[in-house]
Amino acid sequence: MSPTPKSARQWTRKARSNDRTHNVNGYRVEASWHSRPDLPVVIKTADRKHAYRKARQWAAEGAYVIVQAHQGWDRWRTLDEFDGPALAAELQAAERTAIEDARRAAQAAEDRIRAEAERASLARLMVRPPVMRDATGRVTARHTTGAGR
Fold first, then answer.
1. Which segments of the chain does DSSP mark as H helices, in order?
2. Going by C-beta distance under 8 Å and a sequence separation of 6 or more, which residues neighbour residue 29?
3. Bridge partners of 70?
4. Which residues contact 6 (CB under 8 A, 6 or more apart)?
5. Contact in structure between 22 and 72 (CB atoms under 8 Å)
6. What is the sign of the dihedral through the CA atoms of 35, 38, 39 and 41?
């Protein structure tokens, strides 16, 4: 039996560009909020960047988020966990610290300026010549010890 010419076949094999094997490249993101623990959100995607973007977004909204990788046959391995309420508390503490540091720096600058002004005033006073009083030839410091009376 001779091979059939290509033109006589009923069908031809098409080259498929996509991979049709079992997908173990999936990612799963689970998010739950303290305000609504009965309604968690779960997404499954093959895109790692999309999974982490949603995880960061939900963590910023105050959710506890778990990012998992697919191991095959409905098994998942935990990659990362984001504790949204803890991250929010850390962010608030950092903001409070930054505000307090800025207030301290402004107070220190104000104190430094005041001290420099006092030193400059004292320096001007020390450079000033003595002033005559009562046209008697005596200088500003008048003695009260009684010896000159």
1. 48-60, 84-127
2. 41, 42, 43, 45, 51, 54, 55, 58, 65, 66, 67, 68
3. 76
4. 12
5. yes
6. positive
Tell me what pLDDT residue 127 has. Answer: 85
CA 3 – CA 13 distance, rounded (Å): 16
Q: Is the full-model pTM beyond 0.85?
A: no
Please name which of 31, 57, 35, 34 lies closest in space to residue 43, comparing C-alpha atoms.
31
Dist. CA 8–CA 73, nearest whole Å: 43
Confidence of residue 101 (pLDDT cuts 50, 70, 90): very high
Q: CA-to-CA distance for 24 and 100, rounded, in angstroms?
A: 50
| Residue 23: closest CA among 52, 44, 4, 37 | 44
- Dihedral sign computed on CA atoms, order 142, 144, 148, 149: positive
